[in-house]
User: What shape does this take?
Amino acid sequence: MRFEIMRLDDVNGTLVDSTVVDAASVNRIVQQAAAIGQRLWIRPADSSAS
Assistant: This one.
């Protein structure tokens, strides 16, 4: 399964960038974001997303 991970601006919560990753990468990305206090929004990716 693939997930879209969107990085959000710390001040106003607007989208900064996004990427689609496989399930195995989600934990690593979340751990990195948590270490620096970064806000993420994670959702299942559309099958057409790349």
Remarks:
- The longest strand covers residues 15-22.
- The chain has a mean pLDDT of 92.
- The longest helix spans residues 23-36.
